[in-house]
Amino acid sequence: MATQTANMEDYLEAIALLGGNGKPAKVTAISKTLGVKKPSVTSALSKLSEAGLVVHQRYGDVKLTAEGARIAEDVYRRHVTLRSFLVNILNLAPKVAEEDACRLEHSLSSTSLERLEKFLEFVLSCPRGDPEWLKGFNYYFEHGERDKESLARCQRERGKKD
């Protein structure tokens, strides 16, 4: 099967989210979710159907095939991971993070995704809360300079290692 375009991945992801648990999605709901006209949805569904990724009959419900569901799940996983990174690490507003994750999800390799997931798991599961470096980064972002106490602590620790 050929690699899907970002646009086709968006359709698969939307169908999966709208349908959920193997239930069918409706063309009107897909249209509203993606902000496109119904003829655009119909055209995209035709291509996805030809590729064996959805089952759709004219004026009928839309269901993902097993392969379509696998691709949709992968796209959604990339989306959720990226959104989490943007919100929890870079401290972006959820709306901005959502929009950016939607654009970035299509170009993230499986290797980068795995590393990013492990990074998030490592950082966000810190038993003492936010790590000091993340607090320092947030301070730096807000003030345009490093927190003097954090900087001094880092320099002391670096001196001990040298």
What can you see in these coordinates?
The mean pLDDT is 89. It is built from eight helices and two strands; from the N terminus they run αααββααααα. The longest helix is centred in the middle third of the chain and has 23 residues, at 66-88. With 162 residues, it is mostly helical. Strands 1-2 form a two-stranded antiparallel ribbon. Helix 1 crosses helix 2, helix 1 (6-19) packs across helix 4 and helix 4 crosses helix 6. It has helices spanning 6-19, 27-34, 38-50, 66-88, 94-104, 110-124, 132-143, 148-161; strands at residues 54-56, 62-64.
**Approximate strand percentage:** under 5%
Parts with pLDDT < 50 across at least 5 consecutive residues: none
Classification by helices and strands? mainly alpha
The sequence of SSEs as H and E is: HHHEEHHHHH
Count of discrete alpha- or pi-helical segments spanning 4 or more residues: 8
Helix content: 55-70%
Strand order of the largest sheet: 1-2
Estimate the mean pLDDT confidence.
Answer: 89
> What global shape is seen?
elongated
What is the C-alpha radius of gyration, as a whole number of Å?
A: 21 Å
| DSSP strand count | 2
Distance between the termini: 54 Å
Sheet having the most strands: 2 strands, antiparallel
